Every structure is written in C-alpha cells, then in structure tokens.
Amino acid sequence: MPSYWASWSDLPEREVLPGNFRTAVTGKETGVNRIRWVHPTTLPAHTHPDAEQTMVVTSGRIAFTVGGEETVLAEGDVCVIPRNVVHSGHSIEGEATFVEIFAPTRIENLLGFLGGASMPDPAGPAAEENR
Question: Rounded to the nearest 5°, which phi and psi values hold at 26?
Fold first, then answer.
C-alpha cells in the first residue's frame, strides 16, 4: 500500500558538502529537500539544467546569489531559480534551514542514487570536469 506522507525526522540526513546537510524525499514529478547549513558552509556556483528550484527559508539567514544578483534570505523569504541560471550561496552565522523544491524531481538527491554527483565540486568546475 502506498504512503503519501513522511516526517523529516524519520528520513536520513546526508552531508553533501561541508556544513551542508540534505534530507530528501520525492514523488514522481517533484522533489522536496530539507537543507540545513551549519556555519561556515559555502555552496559553489552551479546550475540545474534539468529542473527549476524553489527555496523557502524556514530559519536563520543565508547569503544567496542568483544570476549575479546577491541578497540575504531570512525566515519566510522565497527564492525561485529557473533552469540553467547560475546560483551560489554561503552561511552567515549559526545554523539556517530551508526547504527546496525541484520540478521535475532530481532523483540523484536521494540516498542510494549511484549516478553522478548532484552537488558541485567545492574545488570548482575544472575539478568536476576531471572526475
């Protein structure tokens, strides 16, 4: 019998970059992640050619750059990142959490996925090309 709900606390959390923790769940068409950034953490510049990303900050503050425009996002702020738009970010202090939604889903965000990395290499694009 299918289940239509889960509790974040029952799902595994994975550190995908230093200080950047992801808990992921997916349906057939959309994926939802709870992200927790522990200062200091940096998300290198990257794009998602396969999906649009929406973020909703649920606690704390993060610095985020989308398409060359930088801002500080805080609890209650929403950000939409179209496919192929370069974005990056970094923690400001303490801990921050946000929910991100990908449409269509990015199955590579789930634990157990055996394909390529879903996070950019912190060493930059040249390091990614050499993997």
Answer: -145, 150
> Per the structure block, which two tokens stand in for 59?
């606690």
Report CA-CA distances (Å) from 25 to 20, 22, 68, 112. Answer: 17, 10, 29, 12
> Among residues 46, 50, 40, 48, which one has the least CA distance to residue 18?
40
- d(C-alpha 23, C-alpha 21), whole Å: 7
- Is the pLDDT at 113 greater than 50? The verdict is yes
Cβ density class 94-107: b for 16+ within 10 Å, e for less: eebbbbbbbeebbe
pTM for the model stands at 0.87
pLDDT, tens digit (0-9, with 9 covering 90-100), for 44-83: 999 999 999 999 999 999 999 999 999 999 999 999 999 9
Q: Which residue has the tokens 């449409």?
A: 103
One-character DSSP codes across 58-104: EESEEEEEETTEEEEEETT-EEEE-TT--EEEEE-SSEEEEEEEEES
Residue 73: Cβ within 10 Å count: 20
